[in-house]
From TrEMBL:
The keyword Acetylation does not apply. Its main location: membrane. The lineage of its organism: Bacteria, Bacillati, Actinomycetota, Actinomycetes, Propionibacteriales. InterPro entries: Cation_antiport_E. It comes from the Bacteria. It comes from Nocardioides deserti. It is a multi-pass membrane protein. Keywords: Cell membrane, Membrane, Transmembrane, Transmembrane helix. This is Na+/H+ antiporter subunit E.
């Protein structure tokens, strides 16, 4: 795994240092802890914080900073288009089921343009949530998603799905652009 690089003001780069204990992660894990117990007491809160810190130290993750790159209007367009795609795909899958004819499925490889792991994960999750497609493999080394797609009768249909997946990636990049150093160094 290549290190994430941070760009300094003078243009040089240095490896990013991760803080193992991230306050938002501790807060989130503590809330999950309290939800699992189903009640709130001082002892459970302290125990939850201790467990959350232990989890963060044992399983450190690199920070994901999306707040500084968040574009609200583009995010609204991304969500709106995702909902439209969700409804459209649901209707198409219903049509495939109701037609009761043989269906040709395919595994379609989509080579993502971005090298951001965050973008790849988000695109994969969104594509899997849309009926008719599911991610069967994600290759981090090449940033390629392999998706099982329902009702792909010919190469043109596979190419149309590939273009739609790349369009989704572009909408994600417009809504949540990764920082340049992470893009180049990931």
């Amino acid at each position: 795994m290549s290190p994430v690089l941070r760009t300094r003001r003078d243009g040089s780069t240095r490896p990013a240092r991760y803080r193992a204990v991230q306050p938002l992660a501790v807060l989130w894990l503590t809330l999950v802890w309290l939800a699992m117990w189903g009640e709130v007491s001082p002892l459970l809160v302290v125990g939850g914080v201790l467990v959350a810190v232990a989890v963060c130290v044992a399983f450190p993750l690199p920070p994901i900073d999306i707040a500084s790159g968040l574009r609200p209007l583009a995010l609204a367009r991304l969500v709106a288009r995702f909902l439209v795609d969700l409804v459209r795909a649901s209707i198409q899958v219903s049509g495939v089921v109701l037609r009761r004819r043989p269906v040709r499925n395919a595994v379609v490889a989509v080579d993502l343009e971005s090298s951001s792991d965050f973008v790849m994960t988000l695109v994969a999750a969104m594509l899997s949530l849309i009926p008719g497609s599911v991610v069967v493999e994600a290759r981090r080394s090449t940033h390629t998603l392999y998706l099982h797609v329902l009702d792909v009768p010919d190469e043109e249909s596979a190419e149309r799905f590939r273009r739609d997946a790349l369009d989704l990636e572009q909408r994600v990049l417009r809504a949540l652009p990764p920082h340049a150093p992470e893009e180049a160094g990931a």
